[in-house]
Write a structure and sequence with these properties.
321 residues; alpha/beta; Spore Coat Polysaccharide Biosynthesis Protein SpsA, Chain A; nine-stranded mixed beta sheet; 12 helices; globular
Length: 321
């Protein structure tokens, strides 16, 4: 049974594992860090990237592929026998893929990156993982650069402008700056904290709202997402913008986060939000009521885990100078 506390039930992803046999033999101690590599774009840079990662000597590398499997997976698994390839048998959102990879990982820390990136500062970071333990972060995000080497404003600061949620982009200027979400899912995740939080919600497939739901839940439950500019990822190709249009994913994000109000030691989903939801939902009143009831049940099960509500979190967020 999946550990992800989704609103709508969904079976665990099915996948097969290729490679990693040589790594299994004689392995007694857990790995310090797992690199979870998400495949994106073509295969042009892949072998070169794998050679660079092999030289770093991470120990465990998990490559997520599928459901369409490239013809070169078998040759690559022989060329890089310490890599494990997870071949998904069905399509899935990026968050679902990360859930799957982090569950499969055999280390305390899991670094999530994309195949169209180059990573620097990782060798040094392997020596500093104890510092992450001291920081107590759920996720430590890197400094991101575009293909021209320019720093991206990858930190996202939540704000209420005219009673609407807005994200203010900010550059990662120093270590320890907070962000409400891991930009492009990238970062070093504490595996145990991630699983206790429930990971990314598969019921929210839109990447923008899926990451925002994860980030809000993290902070509302008392976790932290902070940056470490010494870890740097550089994109090899230009990246498009995300779709932040309110859609079905936004509705679930709203109910699970923005609609909640803290009352005493727990949060609740006020009955008044039901009328608002019914009026604004495009699925009809019966379906909207069922959605509301399912979220209400989830809130009742997890109400004591909340340390704050969304308005309180946003009001208390310090804007960096």
């Amino acid at each position: 049974m999946s550990i992800i506390p989704t609103i709508f039930s969904r079976p665990r992803l099915s996948y097969t594992v290729v490679g990693g046999a040589r790594l299994e033999r004689g392995r007694r101690k857990p790995f310090r860090l797992t690199l979870l590599l998400l495949n994106r774009g073509g295969r042009f840079h892949r072998a070169e990237l794998y050679r660079e990662l092999q030289e770093i000597g991470l120990g465990e590398v998990i490559c997520l592929e599928g459901p369409t499997v490239a013809y070169d997976i078998e040759p690559l698994s022989r060329q890089f026998p310490q890599f494990r390839f997870l071949l998904l048998q069905e399509d899935a959102s990026s968050g679902e893929r990360i859930n799957c990879g982090i569950e499969e990982a055999r280390s305390k820390w899991v670094l999530v990156a994309w195949s169209d990136m180059r990573i620097s500062g990782l060798s040094q970071e392997l020596k500093n993982l104890d510092r992450l333990d001291f920081a107590g972060n759920l996720c430590t995000v890197p400094l991101l650069k575009n293909q021209r080497g320019e720093t991206l404003p990858s930190l996202q600061i939540p704000a209420l402008i005219h009673s609407r949620l807005k994200l203010l982009p900010w550059e990662p200027l120093r270590e320890g700056m907070k962000t409400i979400l891991p930009f492009d899912y990238c970062g070093i995740y504490d595996r145990e904290r991630f699983l206790k939080l429930g990971g990314f919600d598969p019921a929210i497939p839109n990447p923008y709202w899926q990451k925002l739901d994860f980030g809000f839940r993290a902070f509302l439950w008392g976790e932290k997402i902070q940056c470490d500019p010494t870890i740097q990822f550089r994109y090899l190709e230009e990246q498009g913008s995300e779709d932040s249009t309110p859609d079905a994913s936004y509705k679930l994000f709203f109910l699970k986060n923005m609609a909640l109000r803290r009352k005493g030691e727990r949060v609740k989903l006020p009955l008044a939000k039901l009328l608002v939801y019914l009026l604004r939902s495009d699925t009809g009143p019966i379906c909207a009521y069922k959605e509301y009831r399912e979220v209400l049940r989830w809130v009742e099960e997890n109400g004591l885990r909340f340390k704050n509500d969304a308005p309180g979190l946003i009001r208390g967020w310090e804007v960096p100078e």
